[in-house]
Design goal:
Blueprint: H1 8-13, E1 20-24, H2 38-54, E2 59-60, H3 83-99, E3 104-109, H4 115-128, E4 136-141, H5 149-152, H6 166-175, H7 221-244
Parallel strand pairs: 1-2, 1-3, 3-4
Helix pairs in contact: 2-6, 2-7, 3-4, 6-7
């Protein structure tokens, strides 16, 4: 179900155990060959495919296209909510649904920069509502839900999500090839270690001059379809768990 298509009495009449999905993405640079709206386009397609499987059992909020993209601001066209502003935005959206009585909230993320603030938001929400035992508050990034896409599509070379990379470029090629520039001319940009296993603070220019990270020159629409299938199946599996949750158990 789409929240945007319902009247307020229809929303009020829903079971408050209906999981609510809040899709969060971004509008930011994606190198020389992909559009600024890449993250939002890709998450929008995954949401579209997932809706077909869960039908009227899940309520979907509209996609929030403004993300935490401060690390990309050196590249023209990027729009960003600063980290603390973004935390307030996510907390506020969730509190709205809690105010309306819903108990199962899932932030579904499609942008790497939203990962840390998204997890922080659900942490803060749980502390504010620590006296309640009936809440399911979750944050999930679609490419981190367990898929090993190269097992179903052996031609994939990358083993993790990059930026305007083999994976993202392939999915945009599958979704709308007219939006893709000369990806074959994009030279590989190494993921790097960044002082691993420590976590190093960074801005995008620390890691890449053209704006992409990974192997976009290896992309194909066929790989994109395989990735969409894997990631959409993961999202559906997560939502089925949220639907089945007994309201008590830790793992669901």
């Amino acid at each position: 179900m789409d929240l945007t298509d319902l009247t307020w009495p229809a929303v009020a009449a829903l079971s408050k155990d209906t999981p609510v999905v809040i899709p969060i993405a971004a509008l930011e640079q994606h190198g020389h060959h992909l559009p600024l709206f890449t993250d939002s386009l890709l998450l929008g397609e995954i949401v579209r495919r997932s809706k077909a499987a869960v039908a009227d059992r899940v309520l979907f909020a509209p996609l929030t296209w403004l993300g935490n993209s401060d690390h990309h601001l050196d590249f023209t066209g990027t729009l960003s909510a600063a980290p603390r502003t973004y935390l307030d935005l996510l907390n506020g959206l969730a509190e709205n649904f809690l105010k309306h009585g819903f108990r199962r909230l899932v932030f579904l993320n499609g942008h790497g920069g939203n990962d840390v603030p998204g997890k922080q938001a659900i942490f803060e929400l749980r502390q504010r509502h620590r006296d309640r035992s009936d809440l399911l508050l979750a944050m999930a990034t679609y490419w981190s839900l367990g898929s090993i896409p190269w097992e179903t599509e052996p031609s994939l070379q990358q083993r993790e999500m990059g930026h305007a990379c083999e994976w993202e470029t392939s999915m945009i090629l599958r979704l709308n090839p007219s939006l893709v520039g000369d990806f074959r001319a994009a030279l590989p940009v190494d993921f790097g270690t960044g002082f691993a296993p420590a976590a190093r603070g960074w801005v995008t220019q620390d890691r890449t001059t053209p704006g992409h990270i990974g192997l976009p020159h290896l992309a194909s629409a066929e790989k994109g379809e395989a990735l969409f299938r894997c990631f959409s199946a993961d999202v559906v599996s997560l939502l089925e768990r949220a639907i089945r949750w007994d309201g008590v158990s830790w793992n669901g």
